[in-house]
Amino acid sequence: MTMTTTIDAPRSPYSRTTKKRGVNWEKWGWIYMRVSGVLLVVLIFGHLFVNLMIGEGVNALNFAFVAGKLANPFWQWWDVSMLWLALIHGGNGMRTLVNDYASTRTSRGILKSAILAAVVILIVLGTLVVFTFDACPAGSPADLLPSFCSAL
């Protein structure tokens, strides 16, 4: 007894029996990964260049250096852009892995919900840190403040 299977020619057009309507989220996720990857390369290498190559290099990296950068709106937006792009890029990559390897619909839903929660929490906390950072908070004891803060 022989079994025969017919396979369509490799170049035959693919047709769906039912037309799916709505946004193609997989396509937009794929595009996002490529665009965010290129932007992240630029942002990360710019970040490394400024922190490690300009001025005294790695010897200048200390609390005062970071406080000075986070006091500048340009660097705040640079860092927040890096944070958002990296977290969403990583979350989307993890979502893809879950879709590929999670075997049941329930486990996929739980894992994707956990990824979404982690990404949202980290984005909110990271953004708050960048925009609300104050190296010299008012009312702090002088012995706990960095040396560059003026005692009030």
TrEMBL record:
Gene Ontology cellular component terms for the protein in this record: membrane
Record InterPro entries: SQR/QFR_C/D (IPR034804), SuccDH_FuR_B_TM-su (IPR000701)
Keywords assigned: Heme, Iron, Membrane, Metal-binding, Transmembrane, Transmembrane helix
Gene3D superfamilies documented for this protein: Fumarate reductase/succinate dehydrogenase, transmembrane subunit (1.20.1300.10)
One Pfam family here: Sdh_cyt
Chief site of localization: membrane
Compartments where located: Membrane
Gene Ontology terms, MF aspect: metal ion binding
Keyword Transmembrane appears in the UniProt entry: yes
Listed transmembrane segments: 31-54, 74-92, 113-133
Name by which UniProt lists this protein: Succinate dehydrogenase
Taxonomic source organism: Cryobacterium roopkundense
